[in-house]
Amino acid sequence: VPERLRHELEGIAQRESKKYNCSVSIAIRSGDWEVSVASGIADFSTRTPAKVSDKYAWGSVTKSLTAASVLRLISEGAFTLDSQVGPLVDPMLRRMRQNDPSQNFSSVEELWGAPVRRTTIRRLLSMTSGVPDFDTAQPGLKGTYEDPLRSELYERPTHDFTPTELMSVPWVAHQWKSRCLLPGPFGFCYSSTNFMLLGLVLAAHAGVERWEDLDQGRFLPAYLRPQVHFALHGTPKQHGVIPGYDRTSYNLPKDTFNDHDNSEVDGVFAGWTASNIVMNASTAASLAWEIYGPPAGVAPREYVEMMIPQGKVPKIYGLGTFNLGFFSGQKGAYGKGYGHLGATYGYQSIVGYFPRANVALSIATNIETNTQSQPSDTLCSTYNAVLGATLGRTITCDFVSKGYYGGQCKCDHAAADDDDFDSDSA
Question: Which single residue of 112, 380, 384, 417 could bond 395 by disulfide (Cβ 3.0 to 4.6 Å)?
Answer without folding.
Answer: 384
